[in-house]
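Sequence, please.
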């Protein structure tokens, strides 16, 4: 009996999704457990697997099945599946197999080189392989763009329907309010002491697992490990997260964990019926980031939740690095012009993203050469943050993204903040007494609302449509900026 084209397509897609999960697991292993000398072999393994995946994604039968399917006959879920598959197929068939394999192998090799360069603060060791990465990304972008903007072609992979000009215009509007807010805070002369003391690694990891559990991360279907750069990997019943530890700064571990838990819970809470299909993952990186940022900031750094966290810190370490719960709250929200994006306060974070967005767009467009990248980074940092980068690991070498070829990814972090601001406004309207359970370490009212309004839908809706459905209004940067001005105006007495 002949199989219906839709059923045949979805059976093929199921196997492709399964292989993609295996590829993701190889990446997780490389970041967490792989022996340091295995990099060359892993690059070959990744290249072979990517060749198999690419062949499946451009299989001639895909085109035949897609042509035979009448979208008018499909259910809402089936139509959404087709939307994702058609978009992916249209992009993938433009990419030569040789390019895809070369990129996969290079990304694996470049990761090891980046990690070593970061460890030794040796920019010159990294720049040659970055040059190779960018050359291949430009080739990819040219194949995808059909004569259009190269950067937009890459951005489309992470945030469908969004252009660099739209992101740039949003950043200009945000900068107009963020910079004055930053200047008012600095000019307030209000000193907030950072957390102080020694916080042993074992205690931090204990607290990280405890906090992850409190936010609803399911350890039966996930695990928490350490890595140089915290990340989340996987979907469905196998979702893994990582964090990192600095024994002088427990915020690094705690809030990196909460951030990755937001990503992990999104993947764990997607409707199981969507598993191993295009709908079985987050719909875009901007929406994904909205979950990690609202978990980390609007919930995790709230005055209510930090009151509970302060007590847990004292239980584990015998102190919390601050005299009382209010000073602890102020310390974890302290505004300072630090070097590291992942450790940045909420006021400065988007300025870090704007820096990276402008530089990577210029790199892809050919307006900035790799040889000039470090100088461009350092000059821009001084202009935006008022200080000088002291070492490459605090500057151009701090992020793994460019080594991995993830050009177009960075702006979705700021877009995620914008979406989180909208979701926080809607959440507070839906659950006006949210602070009471948060002060007791009970996050369910918040996380359940996010699960029901965002996470369970997976890739069913378009990114902006999903946020609009959840919030009851079209997304914009205004709720985020209002939240920041209110919160930090209170903390700094503005």
């Amino acid at each position: 009996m002949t199989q219906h084209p839709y059923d045949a397509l979805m059976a093929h897609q199921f196997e492709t999704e399964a292989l993609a999960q295996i590829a993701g697991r190889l990446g997780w292993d490389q970041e967490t457990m792989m022996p340091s000398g295995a990099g060359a072999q892993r690059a070959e393994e990744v290249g072979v697997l990517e060749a198999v995946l690419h062949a499946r994604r451009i299989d001639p039968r895909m085109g035949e099945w897609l042509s035979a399917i009448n979208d008018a006959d499909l259910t809402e879920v089936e139509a959404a599946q087709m939307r994702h598959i058609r978009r992916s197929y249209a992009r993938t068939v433009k990419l030569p197999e040789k390019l895809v394999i070369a990129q996969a192998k290079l990304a694996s090799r470049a990761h090891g080189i980046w990690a070593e360069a970061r460890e030794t603060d040796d920019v010159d060791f990294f720049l040659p392989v970055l040059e190779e990465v960018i050359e291949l990304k430009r080739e990819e972008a040219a194949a995808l763009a059909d004569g259009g903007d190269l950067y937009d072609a890459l951005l489309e992979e992470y945030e469908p329907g969004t252009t660099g000009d739209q992101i740039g215009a949003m950043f200009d509007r945000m900068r107009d309010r963020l910079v004055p807010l930053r200047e008012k805070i600095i000019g307030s002369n209000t000193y907030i002491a950072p957390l102080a003391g020694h916080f042993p690694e074992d205690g931090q990891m204990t607290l990280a697992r405890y906090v992850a559990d409190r936010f609803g991360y399911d350890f039966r279907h996930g695990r928490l490990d350490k890595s140089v750069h915290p990340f989340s990997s996987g979907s469905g019943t196998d979702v893994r997260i990582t964090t990192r530890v600095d024994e002088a700064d427990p915020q690094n571990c705690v809030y990196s964990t909460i951030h990755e838990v937001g990503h992990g819970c999104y993947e764990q809470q997607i409707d199981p019926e969507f598993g191993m299909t295009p709908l079985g993952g987050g719909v875009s990186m901007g929406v994904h980031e909205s979950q990690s940022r609202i978990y980390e900031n609007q919930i995790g750094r709230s005055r209510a939740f930090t009151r509970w966290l302060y007590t847990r810190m004292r239980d584990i370490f015998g102190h919390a690095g601050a005299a009382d719960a209010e000073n602890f709250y102020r310390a974890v929200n302290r505004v300072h012009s630090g070097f590291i994006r992942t450790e940045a306060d909420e006021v400065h974070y988007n300025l870090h993203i704007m820096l990276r967005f402008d530089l990577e767009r210029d790199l892809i467009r050919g307006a900035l050469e790799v040889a000039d990248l470090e100088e461009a980074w350092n000059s821009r940092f001084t202009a935006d943050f008022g200080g000088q980068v002291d070492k490459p690991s605090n500057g151009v070498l701090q992020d793994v993204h460019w080594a991995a070829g993830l050009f177009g990814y960075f702006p979705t972090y700021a877009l995620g903040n914008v979406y989180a601001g909208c979701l926080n406004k809607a959440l507070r309207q839906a659950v006006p007494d949210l602070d009471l359970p948060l002060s007791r370490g009970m996050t369910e009212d918040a996380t359940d609302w996010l699960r029901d309004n965002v996470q369970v839908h997976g890739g069913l809706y378009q990114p902006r449509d999903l946020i609009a459905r959840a919030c009851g209004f079209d997304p914009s940067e205004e709720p985020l900026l209002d939240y920041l001005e209110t919160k930090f105006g209170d903390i700094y007495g503005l």
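The CA atoms of residues 110 and 403 lie 5 Å apart.
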